[in-house]
Design goal:
By secondary structure, the protein is α+β, with helices and mostly antiparallel strands. The chain is about 25% helix and about 30% strand. It is built from six helices and 19 strands. Helix 2 packs antiparallel against helix 4.
């Protein structure tokens, strides 16, 4: 793909050699060969239907939990914008809601939590602690504070790589810890989340507790990617990292956070290679110290420089 002529026409926005570093939390990494921001679901369907099947597509949410390597991403990165960020309640009668939300995949988790609170839907408070989009959370079965997306998801609408729109029920998501079996190249566009009846004041108090705890324990005001490694069965990743002597460990301008050992941070000029190398060095030291092989939670995509 070297010219716009090789791509299907769109109603949304297509950008060549798009700067992805500004779109991700680490503020590092190379460009996308193409960045597509569809106008609506139909625009996305038509684009994928007419795109060369050999062309890779990759969805981008808010850019948390993500390392884009310095050589960038070949093919098409698809970013769902405001048209995919709507959230609606589900009615079960004239004056009652159904304790469920229909969330566009581009909606931030915090927005879904706030909508649930405002309508007295409990069980979604943990979304206040998930920094990405609802679509990204559905894809990776994101979780925090004792709950996961699989606890509240009823179904997801997905545009397949061939452009078909499908509804996938919870039972068919293939969820395990921080993993789903969504088809390769598919894009989550909408989700149905179900909670239970609750008191808005109580829900709001729990959301505040989560927000305060995150602020106190995590380096939220730095260039970071969120939680770096999955928690091994029965253990805490941050504790294993700390016990291996990695708190504050640095490669180039990438550092293991002093505040929370399961966060890597960009001190200002880190390359994605620095950040990934630091993560791999942490894994090596943890394995040598405890025998535990940490698994990346942060997704690493694209080509090396």
């Amino acid at each position: 793909m070297s010219a716009v002529a090789t791509l299907p026409s769109v109603s949304g926005k297509l950008t060549a050699q798009a700067d992805l570093a500004k779109l991700v939390w680490f503020k590092s990494g190379g460009p996308a060969e193409w960045l597509f921001e569809p106008k609506d679901i139909e625009d996305l369907q038509e684009f994928l239907r007419n795109l060369d099947p050999e062309t890779q597509v990759w969805p981008l949410g808010l850019g948390s939990n993500l390392i884009i390597r310095d050589g960038g991403i070949q093919g098409v990165v698809i970013r769902l914008g405001k048209a995919f960020a709507g959230i609606e309640t589900v009615s079960k009668g004239t004056f009652e809601i159904d304790n469920a939300l229909i969330c566009g995949a581009g909606a931030p988790g915090i927005s879904a939590a706030s909508m649930a609170r405002d309508h007295g839907i409990a069980g979604m408070e943990f979304l206040r602690g998930i920094p990405g989009t609802v679509g990204g959370a559905v894809r990776m079965n994101a979780g925090a504070y004792g709950r996961e997306i699989c606890d509240i998801l009823e179904s997801a609408d997905v545009v397949m790589r061939n452009g078909d729109l499908a509804t996938i029920a919870l039972a068919d998501m293939g969820y395990t810890y921080r993993h789903s079996e969504l088809p390769e190249g598919s894009i989550v566009v909408s989700t149905k989340l179900r909670g239970e009846e609750g008191d808005p004041t109580t829900i709001g108090a729990e959301m505040k507790r989560i927000a305060d705890e995150r602020e106190a324990s995590q380096p939220l005001r730095t260039k970071t990617g969120g939680s770096t490694f999955k928690n091994p069965e029965g253990k805490k990743a941050w504790q294993l990292v700390d016990e291996a002597g990695c708190r504050g460990l640095q490669i180039g301008q990438a550092q293991v956070s002093e505040k929370h050992c399961n966060f890597l941070i960009n001190l200002g000029g880190a390359t994605s290679a620095d950040i990934e190398a630091l993560g791999d060095e942490v894994r090596k030291r943890v394995k040598a110290n405890s025998g535990v092989e940490l698994q990346w939670e942060i997704q690493r995509v694209g080509d090396a420089a």
